[in-house]
Each structure stands twice: as C-alpha cells, then as structure tokens.
Specification:
Elements lengths: L8 E3 L6 H10 L7 H10 L4 H8 L5 H6 L11 H10 L2 H13 L2 H9 L4 H6 L22 H11 L1 H44 L2 H8 L3 E4 L4 E4 L5 E2 L3 E9 L8 E4 L5 E8 L4 H4 L20 H8 L2 H12 L4 H8 L3 H13 L3 E6 L2 E6 L1 H15 L18
Parallel strand pairs: 1-5, 5-7
Antiparallel strand pairs: 2-3, 3-4, 6-7, 8-9
Helix pairs in contact: 3-10, 5-10, 6-7, 9-10, 13-16, 14-16, 15-16
Length: about 400
C-alpha cells in the first residue's frame, strides 16, 4: 500500500449525491449526455412534479446545492437514511448547510439564520463573499417576488415547511422511478468502487487523482490538497476523503464539508462511464423477488467480491437458512447496524439479496437464483472471447 496516506480514503456507494444530480439533469433545459435517461425519467413523473419541485429548487442549480444539506452526516447512506437525516436535522443546521453553499461564506449564513441580516441586505451588499454566483441562483438582482427569493425566504422563515417539501419531492422522485434506476445502476457502481479500491491500494494519491480525473491534485511534499480554484487544504485538517462512483455528476462537482471542530471531509462523486444511466436495464426486480433472472444477468466479479469478505459471507450464510432483518443480523453477529447496512448493500448490489416486507420491517434472504447462476455466469464471463478485459482491477504497478 502507498505510504503517503495522511488521511483515510473511503470508497462509498450511495445515492446521497446522485439523486440530487439526477434532479438537476432532469430540470435543466440544456442538452445533456444523459438525454436518453432524461426522456424516460420525464415520461414517468406526475404532471405536477415540476411545479412542486420548483418550490424548493426554483432553478436547476439549486439541486446540487441541496445535496449540501446533508453535510456532517455519515458518508454512505441509503435513500431512507437520506430522508431520515433530513427530517431529523435541526432547522438551524439545515438552514446553515444550504445557505453556506449559496453565499460561500459561513458568517453570512449564520447572520441570515440568526436574523442579524435579511436577504435583501446580503444580496445588495456587493462585497458579500460569493456575490458573483447569486445571479446563477436567480437571486441577483434582488426581487422579493422571484421564485428564487421566495424559496430562500421560505427556508429562512419556515424551515420545517421547506424541509417537508424537499423530503416530499425526493420521495416522489424516488418512488416514481429513480428507485428502479438506482437498483439497476448500483451493481455497476459497486463494481466500479471495487476497481477504484484496487487502484488506491497500488497508487500514490497524486497518481490516483490523475487516474480518476479528480478535480483536485494532491501535493505530498507540501502535504495539501489543491483545488483548481480556491484555497488549498492542509492534509492535517482532513478527516477523510470519500470517492463515490456516480452516474449523474457530469459537471464534476465535489464537496468540502467542515465540522464544528474545524476538520474537513472531502467528497468526490466520480463519473467513469457517462453513458451508464442511458444504457441501464429497463426493469429491475421487485421486493420479495430476486433481481436476477438468469446467469446472463449475473455479474460474477461482483458476486465473488461480495462474498469474499468474511462478514458478508457470514451474513449470506445466515440469510440462506432463514429470512432475517438487519437488526437481527446486528444482534446475531454483534456488529453495529451501520456496518450491517454497508455489508447488506454490497450483497444487494451483487444481486444476492431478496427482500420481503414483514410487519413494519423488511426480511432479508439470500437469493438462491443468483447463487445457482453464478457458476455458469463465471464460466461465460471468464472464458468469453469478446468484451473488454477488466485489467485495471488486476494489474500491478511497477515500482522499480
């Protein structure tokens, strides 16, 4: 393993950014490489969806900004955890998280939340940090009757209402199709995460950043992260760096979140295949049924990777014998619930999990169909004379 690790690099698979970036893509009128996905997604939305969505995000650029509402929460989250964190977040934190993204200045955000300044005063102040961006958010010049001003005013004066409407939009978007999209994309995102992990095991940080085309560089000599614009970040301040496979971050946004102690977490959602969302399968399984129909649908690499971890193999052994909830797995294995969630996500992404609702909870079981099909899938994929070889996951870098 490289010796320049001054902080942990974590590879996570989560919709916590992609659901917001997908909404940006959907609401933006400009041509996109995701036009095929966008056309399908628009066709399945309720007629009033856009009207409701614009109450919390009056211009498309608000959507990546709203992803910042989840800062200071755990790195890898399921959709249910995203909504739960939003609903349980103190109103002041929700306001500060979003406003600091708009104004790029924590002091300005605090002044607005505390009522020491009003929105007009901040926007009319030409010296306000980040004022040049306000036009892109539809806030400059200031117009109290504009949709953007109304949305920010609602956030400031009625944060609970704003939160409820944001959660409602996310839930409707998820339930009317994005859940199916994510389930179709997640196995490839998980496989991509494994491939990135292999690169990280072998490459110094600067080489990793170049390989993954990160929007920053790592200077091991100066011990700092250097964005293409903005202030460098000292290694000593970084708590951890999350690299997240993405299907929708075509604009290559990234996030820097500072904790109350001054420590910083970095998030890099990375698109490696810009066409992934366009090419995904049109259908995925439903709860209680395997998401895999035949050996041709099984990704043998993902299954082997998933079962190669001893904890996940133990979980699979339990689920093969009896349907079990995540809470029961946590008690049986004496492992924390977040850890169980992480491992179950990896098994689910490989098509190994079937789920059945049961008295307010969800029973998990091992997909016999996937296990039965993996041998044929491995033979077909390993001995195939066509298709691209995944050499990036196995090659060793020369150090001499």
């Amino acid at each position: 393993m490289p010796t320049d690790r001054a902080f942990p690099v974590v590879f996570a698979v989560t919709p916590r950014f992609d659901i917001f970036y997908a909404l940006y893509t959907l609401m933006h009128n400009a041509p996109s490489v995701l036009e095929e996905w966008k056309e399908r997604a628009m066709a399945r939305l309720p007629r009033d969806f856009e009207r409701v969505a614009k109450r919390v995000a009056p211009v498309p650029l608000f959507w990546p900004l709203l992803a910042d509402s989840l800062q200071r929460t755990q790195g890898e989250m399921t959709f249910d955890e995203i909504v739960s964190n939003l609903r349980e977040m103190p109103a002041e934190d929700l306001q500060s998280n979003i406003l600091s993204g708009i104004f790029h200045d924590a002091a300005t955000a605090r002044a607005l939340v505390a009522g020491k300044k009003n929105l007009r005063q901040v926007i009319d102040n030409e010296k306000s940090t980040g004022a040049g961006l306000l036009g892109y958010f539809g806030l400059c010049p200031y117009d109290a009757s504009s949709d953007a001003a109304k949305a920010v005013t609602m956030l400031l004066s009625h944060p609970d209402t704003f939160r409820d409407e944001l959660a409602l939009v996310l839930e409707r978007f998820w339930q009317t199709g994005f859940r199916r999209d994510w389930l179709a994309l997640e196995p490839e995102m998980r496989a991509e995460s494994f491939r990135m992990t292999d690169l990280e095991d072998e490459a110094p940080l600067q080489e990793l950043a170049s390989e993954l085309k990160l929007p920053v560089s790592f200077d091991a000599r100066a011990r700092e992260v250097r964005p293409k614009s903005g202030v460098s970040i000292a290694y000593e301040r970084i708590d951890r760096c999350f690299i997240i496979p993405s299907a929708f971050n075509t604009r290559r946004w990234w996030a820097k979140y500072e904790s109350k102690t001054g420590r910083v977490s970095l998030y890099f959602p990375i698109v490696r295949d810009p066409d992934a969302a366009n090419l995904m399968v049109s259908d995925v399984g439903v709860a209680g049924k395997s998401t895999v129909a035949s050996h041709s649908d099984v990704n043998a690499e993902s299954v082997f990777r998933a079962l190669g971890d001893t904890t996940r193999y133990a979980i699979a052994s339990i689920l093969a014998r009896s349907p079990t909830t995540s809470a029961e797995l946590s008690r049986s294995l004496r492992v924390s619930k977040p850890t169980i969630t992480h491992h179950v996500q990896a098994l689910r992404a490989a098509g190994l999990i079937a789920e059945t609702p049961a008295h307010g909870s969800t029973k998990l079981s091992l997909s016999r169909a996937t296990v039965a099909a993996v041998s044929e899938a491995a033979v077909e994929q390993l001995f195939s004379s066509t298709g691209e070889l995944p050499l990036v996951t196995t090659r060793k870098r020369r150090t001499d």
